[in-house]
């Protein structure tokens, strides 16, 4: 049989590729078939992707598409803190900030990674083991299914840190959760619980991942017991505040994270996929993906160009502010000072960056 992969062997420096059993209805491994698990393996930096990781992921996804014995591709992250928090901001700040041509080439790779997910000849399941933020949220929404730990958090980051969520979120969010909710998520960058994102239609399923005194416990930080507040506003899935939040943190401290139910749910979904006609399944998936692709294909190249040029202005300042900041300085620029200076006609210079985020200046 011919080999249709782009390379003979796959480098696995920042990802992990594993063939794992696909289970039949009785829960037994099926001989001759498997699921292909690809893990983003950068847990110390919350599985943020570097340029080299993006290249590895493209090859791994293409390899999964060509794996004749694979029933499904499962994308996940190492550890229990994060699926992926987006691009590696240290790399952005130290190399790409101020280099639009370099970032343009990088965004070609990023676009090819998202496109590889949307073109994969296997169903793609996102196993959300923790935070899914920024570009991580975009990769996840490109997947066909998302099964999440209910401790996972979902958010965009662009407008807070010098970018726009134009790596897929502006294309995918309105179709998945509606225009208004997509607008809120994309612009305000508020953290959403898995319970909220599931309620709005952004996830296939959520499962508990916290055990307290040996008992499975829903995420104590999220409101899970009521739909409306005293004003009639929906609160199911919102994060708790005030004294309720303090009490929830104490419950978290007493518990332990256990992702076994997440694995069980992912395997159960893959079992359901196993019991379908493979060509009819992937044709159906491809037809449904068109609703994402029609927006992604229309916008990704012009978005790449804008994101590249933005590395000379807000991206340059925002990524440096985040990467070089700490608890004392903070990680966000002074938005009010920036707006005032731009209203006064100030040009984008290192001096302007010094005014809005002194710790972000590169001498």
Dominant shape: globular
The ordered string of helix (H) and strand (E) elements is EEHEEHHEEHEEHHHEHEEEHEHHHHH
Q: Spatial order of the strands in the main sheet?
A: 1-2-3-5-7-10
Mean of residue pLDDT values: 97
CATH class of the largest domain: Alpha Beta
Known CATH architecture of the largest domain: Alpha-Beta Complex
Number of strands: 13
State the secondary-structure class.
Answer: alpha/beta
Distance from N terminus to C terminus (CA atoms, Å) equals 57 Å
List the uncertain runs.
Answer: none
Largest sheet: 6 strands, mixed
Number of helices: 14
Q: Calculate Rg over CA atoms.
A: 21 Å
Tell me the helix content. Answer: 40-55%
Whole-number tally of structural domains: 2
Task: Give the name of the CATH superfamily of the largest domain.
Answer: 2-enoyl-CoA Hydratase, Chain A, domain 1
Essential attributes:
single chain; 363 residues; alpha/beta; 6-stranded mixed beta sheet; 4-stranded mixed beta sheet; 14 helices
Task: Describe it.
It is a single chain. With 363 residues, this protein is of the alpha/beta class. It folds into 2 domains: 15-209 and 258-310, Alpha-Beta Complex (2-enoyl-CoA Hydratase, Chain A, domain 1); 325-360, no CATH class. Helix content is 47%, strand content 15%. The protein has helices at residues 51-66, 89-96, 100-119, 135-142, 158-161, 169-177, 179-188, 194-200, 242-254, 260-274, 278-310, 314-324, 335-343, 350-356, and strands spanning 15-20, 34-40, 70-77, 82-84, 124-128, 131-133, 145-149, 153-155, 192-193, 205-207, 210-212, 215-217, 256-257. The strands form 3 sheets. The chain has a 6-stranded mixed sheet with strand order 1-2-3-5-7-10, with helices on both faces. Strand 11 (210-212) and strand 12 form a beta hairpin. Helix 1 packs parallel to helix 3 (100-119), helix 2 (89-96) packs across helix 12 (314-324) and helix 3 runs antiparallel to helix 11 (278-310). The longest helix is centred in the C-terminal third of the chain and has 33 residues, at 278-310.
């Amino acid at each position: 049989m011919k080999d249709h992969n782009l390379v003979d062997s796959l480098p696995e420096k920042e990802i992990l590729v594993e063939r794992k059993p696909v289970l039949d209805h009785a829960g037994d491994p099926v001989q001759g078939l498997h699921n292909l698990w690809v893990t983003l393996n950068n847990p110390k930096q919350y599985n943020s992707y570097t340029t080299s990781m993006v290249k590895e992921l493209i090859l791994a996804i293409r390899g999964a598409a060509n794996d004749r014995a694979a029933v499904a591709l499962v994308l996940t992250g190492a550890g229990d803190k994060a699926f992926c928090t987006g691009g590696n901001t240290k790399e952005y700040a130290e190399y790409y900030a101020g280099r639009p041509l370099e970032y343009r080439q990088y965004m070609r790779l990023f676009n090819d990674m998202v496109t590889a997910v949307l073109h994969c000849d296997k169903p793609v399941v996102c196993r959300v083991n923790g935070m899914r933020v920024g570009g991580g949220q975009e990769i996840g929404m490109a997947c066909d299914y998302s099964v999440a730990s209910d401790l996972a958090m979902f958010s965009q980051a662009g407008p807070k840190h010098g970018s726009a969520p134009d790596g897929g979120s502006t294309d995918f969010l309105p179709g998945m959760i509606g225009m208004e909710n997509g607008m809120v998520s994309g612009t305000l960058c508020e953290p959403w619980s898995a319970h909220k994102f599931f309620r709005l239609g952004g996830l296939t399923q959520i499962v508990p991942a916290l055990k307290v005194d040996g008992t499975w416990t829903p995420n104590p930080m999220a409101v899970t017991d009521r739909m409306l507040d005293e004003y009639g506003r929906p609160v199911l899935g919102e994060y708790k505040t005030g004294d309720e939040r303090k009490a929830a943190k104490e419950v978290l401290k007493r518990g332990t994270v256990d992702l076994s139910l997440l694995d069980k749910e992912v395997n159960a979904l893959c079992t359901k996929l196993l019991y379908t006609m493979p060509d009819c399944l992937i044709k159906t998936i491809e037809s449904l993906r068109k609703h994402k692709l029609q927006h992604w294909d229309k916008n990704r190249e012009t978005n790449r160009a804008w994101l590249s040029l933005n590395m000379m202005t807000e991206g340059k300042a925002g990524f440096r502010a985040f990467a070089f900041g700490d608890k004392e300085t903070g990680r966000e620029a002074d938005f009010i000072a920036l707006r005032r200076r731009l209203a006064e006609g100030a040009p984008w210079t290192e001096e302007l960056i010094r005014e809005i985020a002194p710790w972000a200046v590169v001498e």
